Amino acid sequence: MNYEATAILTNYSRPDNIERIISCLRSQTASVEIIMINNSNVKNTYDVDLQIDASKNLMCFPRWFACNYASSPYVFTLDDDLMFSDNDVIADCIRYSKENRCAVGGFGVALNGFDYWRSCHVMANAKTSFEVNIIKGRFLFTPKDFLKNVPLIAPDSISHEAPRFEDDIFISSYINKKIIPSFLANRLIELPEGEFSLWRQRDHRESRSIAAKKYFNKNESN
Predict the structure, then answer these.
(1) Is 142 exposed, middle or buried (0-12, 13-18, 19+ CB in 10 A)?
(2) What is the per-residue pLDDT across 179-198, written as a single tens digit (0 to 9) for each?
């Protein structure tokens, strides 16, 4: 089958959400291949095209390695606490990305210098589209060929300074044009996040700040 886009999912502690997300992806009008990194100790088998069971929680970065297995020209990440409100979201993302030669997403940051938390944090709204520096990994849709120059090195080799590796900031620093488009307004549904979420961790703010300064300062100076 010739898929139009590939979803890269990660599963850790929200199996009920994963089932709903997979059903949503299978209902899209654009054909979606599904690849899942299963970080959970519970090795359930899901209705996906490729499931990779990890022996420990590898966090989020392996999803970008998984993009190498995508058979489609577009790839996207989708967190396990987010799904779509209708069946045309991915078809619209393909159209918009093709017309504007850009990556798109639902949430982003337009950096003010390299200060992550004092920058403009935006989410899709119906009034306007925003060009941003960072698309948050909750939903990041991109042409696969935008990733060809990304050095997929093990996180520990990339950042010893940051408390945690922020893969979406790292990936965004290698994509030139990133837009939070108005057509995504009210089309992303929040699902229960349960007891585990990265933003609640004590090092979250520090980690995001360090990553933005490190990766964007590096690429601006190249």
Answers:
(1) buried
(2) 999 999 999 999 987 565 55
pTM: 0.90
User: Cα separation of 188 and 84, whole Å?
Assistant: 5
Q: What is the dihedral of CA 213, 215, 217, 222, to 10 degrees?
A: 170
pLDDT per residue as tens digits for the range 129-153: 999 999 999 999 999 999 998 887 6
CA angle, 10 as apex, 118 and 146 as ends, to 5°?
A: 65
Instruction: Give Cα 75 to chain centroid, integer Å.
Output: 9
pLDDT digits (tens, 9 = 90+) for 110-135: 998 878 999 999 999 999 999 999 99
In the chain, what are the domain boundaries? 5-221
Residue 118's alpha-carbon distances to 58, 109, 114, in angstroms, are 30, 10, 9
Q: What class does CATH assign to 5-221?
A: alpha beta
CB 115 within 8 A of CB 174: no
Q: Where are the alpha helices (DSSP H) in 130-186?
A: 155-158, 167-172
